[in-house]
């Protein structure tokens, strides 16, 4: 059992030092994660007793595994919010990220991006570097894909999420994307996680296809321990014996994660579905179970998609997805984030600057 | 591949005989399931060509496994409705069945039953015969439990669902219950399924804890083939590597089943959850994914429950469950069934007879 | 935790009563399984201390789940032997049971049975009642199959193992077979297990396709608690995500079971393999991991088998199986049982009666 | 379906070009993997017909997934051998690799290494870079560990296997180790696989904990496609619902892999076992099922091991492992490789040079 000790951030160094000394003698393996969070191994009650007279100590709790910084206990039950452009993934609103499995061309990406924005979705996804089971499958456009994503962001105002595969690409990807996605197959690529912990850019960490909830939180801990607190988890289906769809969407894990961690949790219904007709039901299930958002593969012409077309939601169905999601999120006591256009309208009404986005949009429509 | 041939029920015997002859020569293993449904092995297009001139033939389709009678194709895409007392599980409304894991005493059962009815749930569950992993665990009250269920039904007006374990108990259970439940561990107890096929009483068939969707439909086929069409399927979580809850609720299977079968599909969130806090999120996920109902373990005093108390939803939370479910079902384009009380009120307004139920309820309240 | 108390069988009633009283006050839920084995819930050390002065108490140990009678602790580490005709499944020798998936005809069965005997295998398997996923698949010859099995037993001298599906068939099956097999899909058919516990005939209990080792031992406990100690367990592959064979043979479970139970453990490599070429490697793996025997589907003409022909080992390969198994059992510190013919030879050399078997064999050869 | 075309390596460029042209017109997606192996998508029979008159074409076969270079078909059924120092993993003999989970100190490593060599094992394993679920667990000695491994190799004559985690460490690891291991969690770290494909140093690729056999072969294809043919696969247990051991050792996958690939396949029984008592039974099962070797965690003092001590085989049990393995390999029609000492003796008898190893060994013994 790991004991988590949360300290008032306003405590001075003397107070902090005294807490550290007392905790170190009451427990073992004391670790100072940051100014607000310590942890130790040992008996929670003994540690709590040793710290009883310390006013700077806000809480002493016990967690089942050493995912200290990811635990709800480390934030005293408060929920974190992670920026994705102007949208904030977290308790304030439900976030919908949509876009193609992989960036195929500028035309393809812009057509999809415009539809994503027009449907009121909040961010654009698209793979430039694609991890593929076979070395002979399409591996993505690489750096060219990154440039197209940056261009789509400029033209639509949508923030961009894309996958990072190689530690040596981190800077390039961080230059083009608002959020770096770690795919399921890399969830325990600790080398990559550690480097992303050093970055100051939001990260989306997908659960491995047979990773337990605990292992997912420990993978998150690698990023948090490096000091990068802008982290979102993503459930995307686990591998089971069932083969009537691609992966088993684990809504139970979503509900458990919402209890155990302060980090936002979103869901990828597309990879779990493996087929278009299941995408919306799974997205709705995720929202009703309490997820903070979904990331959906969508394409303007699934039949010609270079990758995963079978599971792509046609962009023409995005409005249906959005309106049904707004009902499902209600069941979970949540509301949808306003759309990019909605935010602009509010700003215009307030007389605030709104940027070049309408022009870009117009230019796109002209194409 | 199995080819399903649907025939107009108004066809006369000559027409039927001709279709049978033609189908038998175009395919192999011809089987006459009933006057409306035939099946054969072979090439769908060849069979369709052979039957092209037969006006009585309504459709010739292909299904991946021989669950002919369970298939959506056998009903031309129409959805079945299964009676549960006055409530009808199926497309007309979302059904909530609630009650204790096992019947423990008359007092316990009636207290819970009244709360179930008052919350607006539609039916009462409760185990009289309990299948338990260990021979030393509480095995249920048996026949005494059946009598208590019948009494609770009489007093509350709620129809009753209870589990059947032994073919030799079928008559007794059918006398006391409105719907007989086959538990997950008996999903492939073909002896039991066959006997239930001969019964004319609704059956609730739970998916085995590692049964595929196909196997579930084939188990259903055993009941349907016997002539019992009053059958409801139930997803209750599958066994996977994850251990942060009890079983992995498979919302994907719900969505797939709704595509492949005309049978109603409900969900048991309680056994999947294994812990109270997850029950409502999982129930909401099921409703949003398109389930036709849920069956929830609920208890007035979970701490003292003789079985599965850890996962029982306190009856005081049933109203919250009902109101949130009505939002989640909206996302799936559904509405909730009216409550028993609601039905009575409608009848009274119409001047129809409403039975002894208010008295019974009153008597209960006096206790 | 369950505490197991083993008592010297020679203890008199007074001694036993005193032990019962003392154990009941030191632990809770005291249970007298039989004259030699008690169990209680509670702290092992407290119970042991209470019984320290009782000479009739041979051991007080702790087991992780309440499979008291199945536990190694209940037999003080000794291993059980279960009779299968003249062969004894257990530590004295490795047992090979072979035969067709299902009895198809007298000719088929006798041809296979003769080959099984001639290869030196120890018993004949064959299904008369077949549990099939689909109601439309061949369900076995039923009672006619039982008669054919009895005939094959008479003609070859091989004891017979066959499956029991329905509690109402137990007497008939017990009349024709030396060992009644409970299939994987019925492992938690507690009604059936309880009835078999009342029988005095050997039972072969197959592990469910997603049953844990603990659940398997608890299912065994149902039979043992009824007083039937002639019980053999069988690992036959579990359901996982892998699909390059039929089920995942769990040799780890074999090794764990050999540590946790005194019951013999055999392995069915055929259902795990799903394809002929994998059967021998899996059988060898089972033997090397410490199994007490294997049960193998074998057919004289797999291409025409009415069921599971794809995984049937041609009878012509049985000699190879036997000779390679004798090497693999050596790695586990075991030897093979002598063949039926070998036993007869030993008896003839000793001047003991050998029965009508050679005549029967001759008659068969004449056919 | 992928069609594999194997060409005589002695074919001249004209012949090769003609085969390429013909194959490209008969199939699609033609790919020239190397001078001996082409592949195409399409109908095998059509491609074979197009190439029927080409004498340089040795075979045209069909495989279920695009793991062309890893397939048995690409080598016409011949089995590959991969050098590990003087030992050769492959059909000529069974290979045993043993050593600690992680290198902890020079003293620890040398004591274990000497015992590994003295027991007749063929190679030393030991982790310098350790992938750990938690960022707070011991992560290995890093470069210092590599130096200790090189020293142990020099002193014992044993070749060394160690894990590589980070593409940026490849050169360093390749300098110290004879074989680079890719761990299960990195099996689909395609960045790493691709870099190892460019290396000319043997690689040991562990199956991911929920990777299918097909995905494992496709991961291998990444390395082979880069031109590195020195590749060994390793089954190490998969993740299932069973929790009475750590992972489910998949002996069925070993048997399937031996049919589908020419690459050697070894087994890690230690991670599957998770506990010492199961290691030898699982190793024996692997050998009997046809594995080409085992890699076993072994320690001189498991109780103090910094990592995975619970599953470490005490070095004092290595002789038992070796002698029982030699029986189990016999069942699979195999023999054990000679030990390092055995090889030296043969060389000395032949008057060949044997190097400084005895001195080193002596020095070690003096410590």
Automatic annotation (TrEMBL), chains A, B, C, D:
Domain of life: Bacteria
Annotated DAHP synthetase I/KDSA domain residues: 94-320
InterPro entries with a match to the protein in the record: Aldolase_TIM, Class-I_DAHP_synthase, DAHP1/KDSA, DAHP_syn_2
GO biological process: aromatic amino acid family biosynthetic process
Keyword Hydrolase appears in the UniProt entry: no
GO MF terms, alphabetically ordered: 3-deoxy-7-phosphoheptulonate synthase activity; aldehyde-lyase activity
Enzyme Commission number(s) of this protein: 2.5.1.54
Any Pfam family the entry gives: DAHP_synth_1
Keywords from the named record: Transferase
Protein name: 3-deoxy-7-phosphoheptulonate synthase
Species of the source: Microbispora oryzae
């Amino acid at each position: 059992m790991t004991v988590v000790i949360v300290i008032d951030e306003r405590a001075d160094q003397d107070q902090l030092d005294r807490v550290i000394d007392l905790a170190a003698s009451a427990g073992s393996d004391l670790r100072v994660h940051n100014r607000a969070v310590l942890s130790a191994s040992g008996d929670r009650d003994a540690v709590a007793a040793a710290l009883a007279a310390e006013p700077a100590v806000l809480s002493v709790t016990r967690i089942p595994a050493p995912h200290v910084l990811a635990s709800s206990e480390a934030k005293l039950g408060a929920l974190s919010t992670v920026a994705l452009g102007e949208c904030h993934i977290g308790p304030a609103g439900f976030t919908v990220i949509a876009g193609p499995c992989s960036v195929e061309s500028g035309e393809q990406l812009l057509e999809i991006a415009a539809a994503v924005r027009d449907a009121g979705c909040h961010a654009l996804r698209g793979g430039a570097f694609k991890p593929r089971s076979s070395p002979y499958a399409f591996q993505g456009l690489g750096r060219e894909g990154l440039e197209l994503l940056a261009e789509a962001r400029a033209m639509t105002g949508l923030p961009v999420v894309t996958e990072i595969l190689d530690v040596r690409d981190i800077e390039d990807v961080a230059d083009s994307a608002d959020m770096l996605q770690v795919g399921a197959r890399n969830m325990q690529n600790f080398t990559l996680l550690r480097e992303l912990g050093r970055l100051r850019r939001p990260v989306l960490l997908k659960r491995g296809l047979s990773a337990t909830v605990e292992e997912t939180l420990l993978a998150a801990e690698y990023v948090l321990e490096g000091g990068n607190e802008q982290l979102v988890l993503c459930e995307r289906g686990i591998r089971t014996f069932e083969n009537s769809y691609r992966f088993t969407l684990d809504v139970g894990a979503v509900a458990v994660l919402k209890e155990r961690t302060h980090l936002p949790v979103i869901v990828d219904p597309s990879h779990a579905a493996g087929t278009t007709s299941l995408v919306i039901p799974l997205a709705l299930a995720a929202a009703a179970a309490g997820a903070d958002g979904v990331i959906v593969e969508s394409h303007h012409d699934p039949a010609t998609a270079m990758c995963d077309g079978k599971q792509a939601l046609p962009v023409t169905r995005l409005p249906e997805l959005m309106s049904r999601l707004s009902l499902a999120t209600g069941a979970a006591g949540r509301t949808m984030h306003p759309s990019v256009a909605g935010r602009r309208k509010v700003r215009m009404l307030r007389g605030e600057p709104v940027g070049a986005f309408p022009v870009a949009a117009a230019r796109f429509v002209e194409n």
